[in-house]
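Hi R.,

Here are the chain sequences for the assembly we discussed:
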Amino acid sequence: LPIGILVSGRGSNMEAIADAIACGRVPARIQVVVSDRREARALELARRRGLKALYLAPGDYPSRQAYDRALAETLKKEGVELVVLAGFMRLLGRDFLDQFPNAVINIHPSLLPAFPGLNAQRQAWEYGVKFSGCTVHFVDAGMDTGPIIAQAVVPVKDEDTPETLAARILVEEHRLYPEVIKWLAEGRVTLHGRRVSLKI
Ligand code: GRF
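And here is the predicted structure of the full complex:
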């Protein structure tokens, strides 16, 4: 499965996916990594791996729609069939999503629909939940609202800080995200309305 990874920052999920592909655990190929931030560490990490890594500057486009179209065009040109958001900090609109129907996924560091948006791990910690985790979902035009493909759960411990909780969730992110890409590559994921089922 030819995939494109969109990033804005650290790039640890991109690394986990690239590692899983490199060791043959996931039948996918990373065609391109695209960042909307020039200083993203993910770009540097991708280049170090010999992956094609591009910076697409939002400031070069007159509107959000124009940026979305340019982004979609870039990915199409590289033959991308699945778009993987890995710490990509922009909302994608119809102009982008219509080009990749049911083929854009995201990972979010909470058990959605709880704690969408920024700083999900801190939100969960402040709320006082006893379990949190991560969610891989299809992307729609809302913020962290698309159909849920898979979730992983971690306990919240009394001695946790937002940082220790985030670290525990991140371990699960790095395990779950490559796994879901594997399922998609194997054609085992089906969408029925907003419910997703997995063929075994
Ligand atoms: C992860 O916590 C992910 O769940 C969220 O953004 C963070 C990205 O981290 N969407 P990284 O860039 O993959 O290290």
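Residues 58 and 175 are 31 Å apart (CA to CA). The radius of gyration is 16 Å.

Let me know if anything looks off.

Best,
T.
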